[in-house]
Every structure is written in C-alpha cells, then in structure tokens.
Write a structure and sequence with these properties.
Gyrase A, domain 2; 14 helices; elongated; alpha+beta; four-stranded antiparallel sheet; 2 domains; 461 residues; Multidrug efflux transporter AcrB transmembrane fold
C-alpha cells in the first residue's frame, strides 16, 4: 500500500474516531459550538446527545412475574400463545418509556410464566394494572365521517403547527377514523399464515366460530370496498380493504407482507383472540447493585487500570506501544459509540464482557510486537519485520478471538438476560478489537516505513 493511501486511511480513521468521541460524550463539543455560535452569530448544529442505556443492576427498577392461565388452550398451542402474549406485553411495556423492557417466557413443572423487567420504571403500580389485562382484539368499522377524517389528515401533511391551526376544522384530523363493532377476539378461532396460490405472497388467514362468522359476514357485506380495521390493545395492527362479502367464517389479509411480518401479525391476532389471562404472582423492586458513588468509583478504577496498561505498553514497546495505545483509545471510543447506536443495554455483566474484550485487544498487540521483535532480531528490514510480525501473529489472534466469539454466540443463544448482555458486549468487543489491532495499529506503523526512524532499532526492539 502506498504512503498516500495509508495517510488517507488514517485520516478516515481519525475522522471516525472524532465522531465516535463526540457521540460517546458530546458535552465539550456542544459547549464549543455554543461559544462559536454566540461569538460569531453562527448556526452550527449540536452533536446529538444519546444517553447510555443502563440495566436494572445499574439504575434499579421493577421485576414482575406473571403466571399464565392456559386451561382453555390446547397443549400444542401453548408456545404460540405464550409468544403472542409476550409480544403484547412488550408493546404495553414500551408505552412507559422503559429503557430496558425485557419480557421473557418461562416454563417449569408445567407452569408457564412471564417475567417482566422494567429498568428505571417510575410508576410500577400503573405498569402492573396495564400489563395484567388480558390482550384484547377487536374489529372496527369506518365512522360515518371516515372519508372526511382522512381528507383532513391529508390536508395537514407538511404543514407547520401554526399553519395547521389556521385550517378550518383541523381538529377533525385528531379523531379516530374507526369505531368499535361487536366482533372481537372471542369470536376468532385461530389465525395462521398462508400463501397466495399464484403469487406465493404470504397471507394471514382468519377463521371465526359460527357466531363470529355471521357477524363477519354482515360487516363485510356492509363495508365492501372499504377497510375494516383490526386492533389489539387499542393499537392498529392492520386495516385490510374488504373486496367482497365473506361467508363461511374464513378470511385472509394480504398486504405484501414478508414471512416474518405475516407471522408476527398472526401471533399478535392470536394473542388477542386466545383467552389467556395472566395473574401477578411476584413483584420485586430492585435497587441498583452499584449506587452512583460506587459506579463512579468503579469507572475511575477502570480508567486507572486502562491508563496503567497504556503506560506499560509505551515503556515496554516504545513507539509501537505508543501507537498501540492510540489504537486502543480508538477501540474504546468506537465501542462506546456502538453501544449507543445499536443500542446496547449496559449491565454489570455487559461491562465485564467489554473489559474482557479490551484485555484481548491488548493481547493482540503484544503478540504482534513480540513477533516483530523476533524478526528485527534476525537483522531483517523494518517493513519486512512489520509484515512478518502481523502475518505470524494473525493465526494466534484469529484463533483466540474466534473461539471466544463462538463461546459468546453459544452463551447468547442459550443464556438468560444477563448472560446474553455479557456475551453480546464480548462479541462486539472482540470484533472491534481485532479491527483495531490488525488494521489501525498496522497502518500507524506503516507510516514509518522508509523514514530515518526505522533505522533506530532501539525504538522498535
């Protein structure tokens, strides 16, 4: 690779690192922007302030355990019913703005339960009331002024708040265009996915009981050419257009679904149709394992440890150690930025996975520099020693990191919530660590090829 390409690559890396630093902590950057905007009457934008997502053990919260009553469900449908319930509960939990809504199904001794973890919840009593309700599915028909509502909504598109208030009867757009009917989940026998016989597109198939079939026939006859809306827990799931009067109690919903979207819709409709009440059997308010002071002390200890590693690398490996330290700093800011962008919920276990991956990133640099020293000790040139050092160290780095990632994938696939948090940060950390050691450090060291400094062997050995 030419020197020009190396400098361009490093420029891109430094630019990305600058963005990652400000994404991880935008406070100083935004203060500087405020100063420039005020001083020179500019209008530079702020960097977005995205908070880290903290788990139950770092900020506390509430853990609720519910027992599901499956007496009226066939045994073969237990898993499907519980998955549907879980999806509905997750939607309900998200209404509270919870930072780490975690809903899991559990089964032990034939008893099926839902465990709900609400990190940072402020009103557990309201959460208990809302979560405890049985999922409710209903079919709604258009109101008499359905067309007027839709036209008014279309009229407001793209308008500012001030412009909207100047439009006559703008409040009409806030009305719900559908109204309840007598057809609800208790008349729905089952919902499943199917495929169109000619286009092979996924469909959602509905089957009603005898009473529901009569009501559905009346509704489709009345609203042919118009939409019928399907709601679960008051949330619009679909509003398919009625093509013709439907008798026999069977219908289908088409809408250019993917298979996963059709499965999710079928599961949600089944959750609203199945009589699966849930009963709260356990409520526990969880205080953060680490309080604010303890968390700050732990972070300080982590920073001191990281600085000690950098000092060791610089003293023991000299110039390669300096650039390994820079590479590790870039690795840290990249990883923190990814934690915010994905976003990753940080728990104590997740932080442990992050720290472990950091140690493996240091190991990768040590392997490379040790191999490079061996090559220089055999009187080989700087660039050859550098390339051989990376080439010979790569199998050890690859095998060590890939086996760790494999273990992480197993833990993530079969572990529980906190184990999954540890595994996820460990996997991401190892991938970014390999990139930092093999790519970033390599490009930094290649800058010295062909310079006078490459002849000062004591700097590299």
């Amino acid at each position: 690779m030419s020197k020009k390409k190396i400098f361009i690559t490093l420029g891109i890396i430094i630019l990305l690192a600058f963005l990652a630093v400000n994404l991880s902590y935008s406070g100083y950057f935004n203060l500087g922007v405020d100063f420039l905007n005020k001083k020179f009457s500019l209008n530079f934008p702020h960097f977005p302030e995205i908070p880290f997502k903290l788990g139950l053990d770092l900020q506390g919260g509430t853990r609720l355990v519910y027992e599901a009553d499956l007496l009226n469900i066939e045994k073969k449908d237990y898993d499907f019913a519980m998955q549907g319930l879980r999806d509905v509960i997750e939607r309900r939990v998200n209404l509270f703005g919870v930072q780490e809504p975690m809903v899991q199904t559990q089964e032990a001794g034939g008893v099926h339960r839902l465990a709900v973890e609400l990190a940072g919840i402020k009103d557990p009593a309201e959460a208990i009331r809302e979560i405890g309700k049985t999922p409710f599915l209903e079919f709604r028909e258009p109101k008499e002024n359905f067309e007027e509502i839709l036209k008014k909504r279309q009229e407001l598109v793209g308008k500012t708040e001030e412009e909207i208030t100047q439009i006559e009867n703008w409040q009409l757009a806030l009305e719900e265009p559908f109204q309840s009917t007598s057809l609800n989940g208790r008349y729905l026998k089952k919902t499943e996915i199917g495929f169109h016989p000619t286009t092979n597109e996924p469909l959602v198939l509905l089957q009603f009981n005898d009473e529901g079939a009569k009501i559905f026939k009346e509704l489709t006859a009345k609203w042919t050419g118009r939409p019928l809306a399907i709601y679960v827990d008051g949330i619009l799931m679909s509003a398919p257009k009625v093509e013709e009067e439907i008798s026999g109690g069977k219908a289908q919903i088409s809408g250019r679904f993917t298979i996963e979207e059709a499965k999710e819709l079928a599961r949600n409709l089944n959750a609203g149709a199945l009589p699966v009440p849930i009963k709260l059997i356990s409520q526990k308010t969880i205080e953060p394992i680490l309080g604010r002071i303890s968390l700050e002390q732990s972070l300080k200890a982590g920073i001191f440890g990281f600085v000690s590693i950098l000092i060791f690398m610089i003293l023991f490996y000299r110039i390669p150690g300096i650039f390994a330290s820079i590479s590790l700093l870039i690795y840290v800011v990249f990883l923190l930025a990814l934690f915010k962008l994905i976003p990753v919920t940080l728990t104590l276990a997740g932080i442990a996975g992050f720290l472990l991956s950091m140690g493996m990133a240091v190991d990768a640099n040590i392997l490379i520099f040790s191999r490079m020293r061996e090559e220089l000790g055999e009187k080989k040139g700087y660039l050859i020693s550098l390339e051989e050092g990376f080439r010979r160290a790569w199998p050890s780095i690859r095998d060590g990191n890939f086996t760790t990632i494999l273990v992480g994938l197993i833990l993530f696939g079969f572990g529980t919530s906190f184990v999954k948090g540890f595994a996820f940060t460990l996997i991401i950390g190892n991938l970014v660590g390999m990139f930092a050691a093999i790519f970033i450090t390599n490009n930094f060291l290649r800058c010295f090829a062909g310079t006078r400094l490459e002849n000062w062997k004591w700097l590299w050995k």
